[in-house]
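ENTRY TYPE: protein
CONTENTS: sequence, structure tokens:
***
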Amino acid sequence: MLIGTVLLCNVSIAKDSPNVLIIQTDEHNFRTLGAYRETLPPDQAFVWGDDAVVQTPSIDSIANRGVICTSFYATSPVCTPSRAAFFSGVPPHKTGAHSNDQPYRNDIVTFAEVLRRDGYSTGYAGKWHLDGPGKPQWAPKRQFGFADNRFMFNRGHWKNLEIADSGPRVGSRNQKDAPNYNVGDANEQTYATDWLADRAVDFIREHANEPFCYHLSIPDPHGPNTVRAPYDTMFADMAIRPPLSFSMSRENPAWAAATGRNASLKFNPSLMQHYFGMVRCIDDNVGKILNTLDELQLTDRTVIVFTSDHGDLCYEHGRLNKGNPYEGSAKIPMLIAAPGIIPPATRVDQAFGTVDFAPTLLALLGKQAPESVEGRDASGVLTGKTQSDLDEVAILQSSGLKPSWFAVINDRFKLVFSVSEQPWLFDLEKDPHELKNSIDVTDNQKVVRSMAAALRDYVAKQDVNFVHSKIDQQLRDLLGDDAAADDAATDDAAADDTTDGQ
């Protein structure tokens, strides 16, 4: 019995059908990319200092040849649920993979499976994180449309990879021969970013004469913040300062309270220097892949996507990593070059989320999305056939079957509901550092009600007990409507139950 995929019938596909190459990083702050800095005012573009930047010419070139989405968000800013939504177009709580290390349901149909059924050669290299707790777990048995998944591993942020007689494995190992995250003796052939990029190049060369879809999932710049030479010292002399909001963590809303190691976090410039090094290494490898497409004369018929699964606060609000709706955590890069489909130098400011990616990609390719898809098709906005609606919202949620917070976002405002805090409204135009709750500003009342109504309509479409009773009450209070979220939970004990139901 096949699981996670379907037998391919006799399907013919035009050889000139667009190829698809997706490069996805992990825990990537969008401000490290030149293309995004150009869309921001200086105080937002240079949060670590006026000269504390990474040059990313290869990644930026994708934006120049296609579209840059300035308000693209992780539907749930944690690895597994964000990826679950990205590949399927289904909200994470409906995929089985609603929290880290929870596996996809067998019946999930990804965009890769749609393309595989249509005759595309498909493959994947790098971190997957949708097959449960296995680590590294090379080549998961459930392929979900990625027919060549020899170099897919389920979990881990490995730095040193190699091909042994038995197949791919982690090259850095301890005295008991167990894999570890050390860089070790990794070089330009064995450092994870380089090694995985080479697997993408190999696949592209092998399938240059047929339509292909390849997904390269790079585990950097997720921690540990270490990188091979010369990137480990490339930014060692750079003056890097803490972001403006770093010392203001005590003023964070309860949903972003600094706990654990973040509670006493001290600014360490070397951590950011190595983070920048990882980003520069990624950019150089993107350049290598783009050069391969040029060499094989595939650039003009390949849709190239550069994105990430979620962000990294990188000391904003006194925090590292992700998991909350702040911009540094939830906003992600989304660059798409699609020659002949998306006009060059296009900018889209309308808010979208990772759940919108699969239906959008399939529509750009002229394919029908599966009936299970709930994400929006943004292809009309990206191609310019449909006018962007800056009041249209993206809805984000925390991980889990019963989210502890929701965020409703458009191009200017972000309304956050949480079980631990009264609603917060950020005016990203007047308060880009997200320091002030503007929910009581008179001029904002219309947008608050509109966003609350959007969330009410969203949760009403979900299963009973999906929304916590505290968030349900907040919606009712804001809307003055006893009908808000009628299917909400009313039992706090039941509402706090986040078991996975597997």
User: Anything to note?
Assistant: The radius of gyration is 22 Å. The chain is about 25% helix and 15% strand. The domain at 404-495 is CATH 3.30.1120 (Arylsulfatase, C-terminal domain). The first strand starts at residue 19 and ends at 26.
